[in-house]
């Protein structure tokens, strides 16, 4: 059995290794986001990254993937970023032979499977690789040392779920829910406040770590203003998980208190919320901030295979957290139920509701 | 069963995790070397490291432990280096408040257990930590980016055993041996040549990676000139392992061909050899190069516990390589035999024969 009913679930990285439920084998949703943003990143670098400024103080370009997990998506994204920077270098420095060297820092939580990440690094990579364990809600690098921050589908993660959700005497008590879908305003606000605090810390840390003229490119799930969270891709994914847990509580397979005390440490912001947080921080010029609809991969238009793939995706990402709270013995049943709910769900409407925020910032 | 009789054993990192045979629990010999060199490193930094030069181009001091394994020794060594640099900083910059930031790169082979290393990083560390997978026989970092290289008991490792040792038609064929103890000159020379090539590559790489004025401090097993290798601490350790394997081959538990094709990828140089290699490279000033006798820890003066501890130490360091070549099923028996041989050996004479080379270089 997992933790007691009065603690929040601990934050864990994705499933490691390369087994059936590993992130390495179940990261197509993120992989699709990587592809979808590939051209956008290339454009941002071509139009907005000034290598003359960056290379005036360094012969090395230092790149970070914040929340990289174990691959292979991170390697594709990094390759694209480096190739785009090299194209820009050729455009800015004609006839110069000495190209910059690249150092890439792969960052994720300490519980991430860095052994798997390292053993799957591309053998012919044109960069020096390093792994950096630690939360992006804090400093990770020395001052003024990073030229390019990249993050894909990570910035919706909170350092922890809001604590007031566990307080039975608070209007924010999140009884009978694992997230803020169809929740009272107090619960939504508790999540939004926790998220804002986390992003403030994130932006402060990155502002210190980046050189002037450095670029940060981030994409992550977003909630279009005016659309209820439950009707978004992410909201629907988690509502079905919640419903599976509630069914098991009704049948006595887990306790209600366990469900009440489990709250997902995630929040899906709107464009306006993110805009306000970046402006409040004040260290960055906003070069781009737009909602995108990356859709899903063509191989997933078959709704049944899409449903299965999404279930595996959620399992790869959240299994460790769920096991820590509910115990390992309920996990197979939970995901079997989750898969069944997906079969009955009109999930063919989901791709159109998958919305992300694509953000390009330049350090002032 | 392991690899065929015609391949050299693959190079593996130390045992990971924190189990009975893990490096983390069996690294006292290295730990003792860390302690023995603590003061020497402090002195080298105090006397020879010029922070004004280093900090004229960077606000960050970048430190590398080459061949760090999984801890805890590396954390103690790094702590000592940082404290020594901070003392030097105070001595060189009176009345200056802004101290430099430190970034520490923990390097070892990709097969090293970085997950264990990362999860045991000191929580209150005063530096930014990163892991760098890869062989020190090659480039690991961007040009001119490193201020301090440290390495303890790693530089005796070859990238591989010399290939000619496997050639039945060569005078270097290493039949009936796993190393060069009591071997013909051709075998010793093959090892020495392979070692020289590796150190040349190592020095070339570090010369490119280091900033001018940067310091490299290394200690590793050395062979005092005039003393046969078999009469040194390291030689004796490996001779007993060889003898255990030969006994098992005689009894048919492994094949003779398996022993013939297994050659330890290690070489213990003399001071003169290392001196010549550094001078040939030409990029470094030799501030110190001396033989030391670190002895063994006081807790090990009991010869029986010392024997046991050495057996565990060899197992933690070499088990993966031995399993890859001989198969896992013989490992327990091999180390039981090894332990017995140690009991019969006059190992109380060993501590006085433990000799290391302590080297301090400054990048020109």
TrEMBL record, chains A, B:
Alphabetized UniProt keyword annotations: Magnesium, Metal-binding, Methyltransferase, Transferase
Protein name: SABATH methyltransferase 27
Single GO biological process annotation from the record: methylation
MF term (GO), any: methyltransferase activity
InterPro entries listed in its UniProt record: MeTrfase_7, MeTrfase_capping, SAM-dependent_MTases_sf
Organism this protein belongs to: Populus trichocarpa (Western balsam poplar)
Lineage, uppermost ranks: Eukaryota, Viridiplantae, Streptophyta, Embryophyta, Tracheophyta
């Amino acid at each position: 059995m997992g933790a007691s009913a009065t603690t929040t679930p601990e934050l864990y990285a994705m499933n490691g290794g390369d087994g059936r439920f590993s992130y390495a084998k179940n990261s197509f949703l993120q992989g699709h986001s990587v592809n979808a943003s590939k051209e956008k990143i290339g454009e941002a670098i071509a139009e907005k990254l000034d290598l003359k400024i960056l290379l005036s103080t360094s012969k090395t370009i230092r790149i970070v993937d914040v929340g990289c997990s174990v691959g292979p998506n991170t390697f594709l994204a990094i390759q694209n970023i480096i190739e785009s920077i090299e194209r820009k270098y050729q455009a800015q420095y004609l006839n110069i032979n000495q190209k910059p060297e690249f150092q890439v820092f792969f960052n994720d939580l300490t519980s991430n499977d860095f052994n798997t990440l390292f053993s799957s690094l591309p053998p012919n990579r044109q960069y020096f690789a390093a792994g950096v364990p630690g939360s992006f809600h804090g400093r990770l690098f020395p001052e003024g040392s990073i030229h390019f921050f990249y993050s894909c589908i990570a910035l919706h993660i909170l350092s922890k779920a809001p604590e007031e959700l566990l307080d039975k005497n608070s209007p924010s008590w999140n009884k009978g829910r694992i997230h803020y879908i169809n929740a009272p305003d107090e619960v939504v606000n508790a999540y939004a406040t926790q998220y804002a605090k986390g992003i403030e810390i994130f932006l402060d840390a990155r502002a210190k770590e980046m050189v002037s003229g450095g670029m940060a490119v981030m994409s992550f799930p977003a909630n279009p203003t005016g659309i209820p969270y439950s009707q978004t891709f992410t909201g629907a994914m988690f509502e079905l998980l919640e419903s599976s847990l509630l069914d098991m509580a009704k049948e006595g397979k887990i306790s209600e208190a366990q469900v009440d005390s489990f709250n997902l440490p995630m929040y899906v912001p709107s464009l306006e919320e993110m805009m306000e947080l970046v402006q409040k921080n004040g260290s960055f010029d906003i070069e781009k901030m737009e909602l995108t609809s990356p859709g899903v991969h063509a191989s997933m238009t078959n709704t049944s295979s899409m449903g299965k793939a999404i279930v595996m995706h959620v399992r790869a990402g959240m299994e460790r957290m769920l096991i820590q709270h509910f115990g390992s013995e309920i996990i197979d049943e939970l995901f079997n139920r989750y898969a069944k709910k997906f079969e009955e769900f009109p999930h063919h409407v989901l791709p159109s509701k998958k919305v992300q925020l694509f953000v390009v910032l330049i350090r002032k």
